[in-house]
Design brief:
Radius of gyration: 19 Å
Helix content: 10-25%
Distance between the termini: 38 Å
Structural class: mainly beta
Order of helices and strands: EEEHEEEEEEEEHEEEEEH
Largest sheet: 11 strands, antiparallel
Strand order of the largest sheet: 9-8-7-6-5-4-16-15-14-13-12
Number of helices: 3
């Protein structure tokens, strides 16, 4: 777990819950009577609610060039800490990453050169549940501090969909700023919740998978113009995944170009 500062704003959410304990008395979850608290908590703790997933998503970020679209394919097996991710820019493969359960390797193409970085792998089993009321607090300087969980999906893009805790903290922490506009949506055959609201100068819309907290769609807009969006185009959750890790990274990229 790690902390992150945020400028203070009024926060009056309802965090009352019934704790879920395992046989040894450890807290492994919470049940909320407040629907907003339940959605907020599920987005912060999504990886506790699924074991494997395959996603294909489209992403457009504010700093991207006009019309520049990123497509991402990722497969994750949380139980074994194994993952694979491919990133395409306007249809061209520009990077990929994979975890073999021991280390996370990220390969990227920069001016026709292959770059390689290696990072530690995080395990779902090692992430202890932190109750919602302890996930954010005000420090002695009046700044809000958020407690983040590690990226146990071991995919760089997980923050946009699979583990959307950054988006949840930024846009949903103040329950007065958003509403549930549709609590009975069905996307990819799964029950979802649609929420919308306003944070500072940004309007936002999220579609959240009810069972897991995985984010299937979001839009951020300023003055009526969408500046950022993510849309999942294909989704399989807990249907089993096959992850193939190619040892020769250069050939892997060339074959996919």
């Amino acid at each position: 777990d790690h902390n992150h500062n945020q400028e203070n704003t009024d926060i009056e959410p309802v965090f009352e819950s019934d704790l879920i304990l395992d046989d040894d008395g450890n807290i492994i979850g919470e049940i909320f009577s407040d629907k907003k608290a339940s959605i907020f908590n599920s987005m912060l703790n999504s990886f506790y609610f699924f074991n494997d997933a395959y996603l294909r998503l489209e992403l457009s970020l504010p700093y991207a060039a006009y019309g520049h679209i990123t497509e991402i394919e990722c497969s994750v097996d949380l139980k074994n800490a194994v993952s694979e991710e491919k990133v395409f820019e306007n249809g061209e493969l520009v990077s990929f990453s994979y975890s073999d359960g021991k280390s996370l390797t990220v390969r990227s193409i920069d001016y026709n050169e292959f770059n390689k970085d290696t990072y530690p792998v995080f395990s779902k089993e090692n992430e202890k549940y932190v109750i919602l009321s302890d996930r954010m607090y005000t420090d002695g300087y009046g700044d809000i501090k958020f407690v983040y969980k590690n990226n146990v999906a071991n995919c760089p893009s997980a923050k946009y969909s699979l583990i959307p805790q950054e988006l949840a903290f930024k846009y949903l922490r103040n329950f007065k700023n958003w509403e549930i506009y549709d609590s009975n949506m069905v996307v990819f055959g799964r029950h979802c919740v649609g929420i919308r609201g306003k944070e500072s100068d940004e309007d936002f819309l999220f579609i959240v998978d009810s069972a897991t907290g995985i984010l299937l769609h979001y839009e951020i807009a300023e003055n009526g113009i969408v500046t950022e969006y993510m849309n999942v185009k294909e989704c399989k959750i807990d249907e089993g995944v096959t992850i193939f890790i190619e040892e020769n990274s250069e050939e892997y990229i060339e074959e996919d170009k």
